[in-house]
Amino acid sequence: MTRTRLWAASGLVPFAAYVLLFLALPTALALASGLVDGDGAFTLDNLAALADPVILQTFWSSTWLSLVTAVIGAVVGALVCYALLGMRESGPVRTAVDAAAGVFAQFGGVMLAFAFIATIGLQGVVTQLLAGIGIELFADGPWIYELPGLILPYVFFQVPLMVITFMPALAALKPQWAEANLTLGGTRSSFWMRVGIPVLAPSFLACTLLLFANAFSSYATAAALASQGSQIVPLQIRTALTSETVLGRENLAGALALGMIVVVGVVMSLYSLIERRAARWRA
Fold first, then answer.
1. How far out from the chain centre does Cα 45 lie?
2. Contact between residue 274 and residue 166 where contact means Cβ atoms under 8 Å apart
3. If we measure between CA atoms, which residue out of 159, 168, 176, 283 comes closest to residue 211?
4. Average pLDDT in the 116-128 region?
5. Is the CB of residue 146 less than 8 Å from the CB of residue 121?
6. Res. 250: pLDDT tops 80
7. CA separation (Å) from 143 to 16, 63, 121, 140, 252?
8. pLDDT at site 163
9. How much helix, strand and coil, in percent to the nearest 5, is found in the chain?
């Protein structure tokens, strides 16, 4: 390798250090802690605990919550992208939406939980306004602090993430394709049915998988909203690490983390495979 290439490769050192410290090392620690007992001896008992009905229910809850919010976020985000497609790229509306999407895609955690509690919580502003006209949001119980209550906050950051990731694929549709469709006697609907949707389908599916992984690994928003129980896997890991009533389950957290890594790893591998195929159309 020449000196020029070595110098160019040195620019990857910070990224490599970041991946090593925040991805490879935690993965190795999770794998190691899930395969040892409290005395440090090798055991498979922690992995066997993943078959516990409670743990399986937790994984199922995380899966359907991630799937529902990913599909809703993908559909709504794609519609927003379609609306933006007709606007000038450097225009004020599209610039403002792009900037807002970049901010709101990262607006999770305690801040987002507080915003929802302040608006549609038990004593939230919107809740009280609706109660004044006879509409009770919580007539059947405080659902916002339970698993279904996580859908709205998750969708809040899933939609802007979809806008960020799907907009480049939508913008890459070549005008020549639409012109060729019109020249051959096609209509606007035939263009989307025979060209647009088939071309965009891989990108849409890849972005949906990305949203699924994003929701599956989210922790802070759920931790701030869900006051009781451990309905999803990240909260179950917290319980295994911090519970004062059930001791000696620290290594179970490692097994749960390993399960999450496997699920997210499979999803992201599919995302990478589909995205690589979709990139051929954007070339």
1. 30
2. no
3. 159
4. 88
5. no
6. no
7. 43, 19, 10, 8, 29
8. 94
9. 75, 0, 20
